[in-house]
Amino acid sequence: MTEPNLKITLDFTGVDQPALRAAFRKAIRDHAVTVLSPADPSPIAVPGVPRIGLSAKASEYKTWHDDKLPGADFGRVFSAPGEGLPSWSSLAVKGLTARGINVWASAKDRASAVSYTRMFDGIPAGVDLTFTHHHEPIADGVDPDDYLAEYKLIREVADDHPNRDRIHIFPVLEAHAMRFKDLDWRSYTAVDNRTGAQYADGIAFDSYWREDLDYEAPESLIGMPVLAASEFGYGRWRLAELGATTTRKGRALWFREVVDAAGAAGCEAIGLWCSRKTIKVKGKPVELDYRPVDEQTLAAWRALLDLNQQRPA
Predict the structure, then answer these.
(1) Which of 38-47, 101-110, 125-134 has the least mean pLDDT?
(2) Measured CA distances, 262 to 52, 67, 140, 217 (Å)
(3) What's phi and psi for 114, nearest 5 deg?
């Protein structure tokens, strides 16, 4: 007898009734305890207290990491197509490791076993490396077989490396595309759907308060990541990027709500997206600023970064 293929779609857009939100949060928390707890718990996970990181541009490290938001657990570093793997000697990486900040590196290119070995060899003392091959692969149309093969290679190299306890392999999917676009995100989990073999240590998601919503309920935002991690048997999951632009009213409180809900559901790490970019809307440039440039959001982020002090040394 085969198990039925059950697909559940949840849409809590606009829902803000306290009783319903509290009930859903409890359901997610209970689900995380019974389904997402791995047999061998993550050595860096503390229930209810996610590691809080900060994703800022290297040119703004002094502004954010030193002056306004010290205490980040990790920082993100990106290599664009054609740039290969991140280098430990690059200004962006050295700027993090010199501050004792763990590195979460993302690279779009495929690489050889020798290149991955060299990258793992270079992990500085006192920091961990999280590595993501081709973050947000869905919209880029990455070939699923090539994607899986790359994660298989990365896992094989990592498992044979003496720094394995400081290497964390996490694919990163875009939660918006998973929720609202007709795309096969299940092909990009670093899990072989034919054998069930896992080639990553956990799974992560880029999650944003959508610009077309007056409010994005935290329970709605994290619902897909929780269910996706459960479906593919990952006991560890993260929010690689958590962002909301300055146009989102009440975002300071929203950040605290999301971290609280995600932590209760077993999320082990959350990266606050501290950046800005310009897009075109109807042919006109529009700047999206995700940085905590207002005092309320800055205070909220400082309080969240203080959570890192609650973790054991």
Answers:
(1) 38-47
(2) 12, 27, 27, 12
(3) -65, -40
pLDDT at residue 140 greater than cutoff 90: no
For 32-54, b/e burial (b = at least 16 CB within 10 A) is beeebeeeeebebbeeebbbbbb
User: What pTM, to 2 d.p., does this model score?
Assistant: 0.84
CA distance 273 to 259: 13
Q: What CATH number has the domain spanning 48-310? A: 3.20.20.80
For the record, the structure tokens of 174 come out as 């875009």
Q: Do the bridges between strand 203-208 and strand 51-56 make them parallel or antiparallel, or are there none, so unpaired? A: unpaired
- Pick the closest to residue 77 from 99, 92, 62 (CA basis): 92
Q: Which amino acid, one-letter code, is at 273?
A: W
Q: What is the DSSP letter of 228?
A: H
φ, ψ (nearest 5 deg) of residue 121: -60, -35
Sign of the Cα torsion 177, 103, 168, 54 reads: negative
Q: Cα–Cα distance between 67 and 109 in angstroms, integer?
A: 34
Whole-angstrom Cα distance, residue 313 to residue 310? Answer: 9
* Phi, psi (degrees; rounded to nearest 5) at 312: -65, 150
Q: Which residues have a Cβ under 8 Å from the Cβ of 231 and sit 6 or more positions away? A: 186
Using the structure block, give the residue that is written with the tokens 């529009």.
286
Residue 279 C-alpha from the chain's centroid: 23
Cα–Cα dist 178/225, whole Å: 9
- What confidence tens digit (pLDDT) does each residue in 31-52 have? 443 333 333 434 444 557 899 9
Tokens of 183: 């795309």
155 vs 142: CA distance, rounded Å = 19
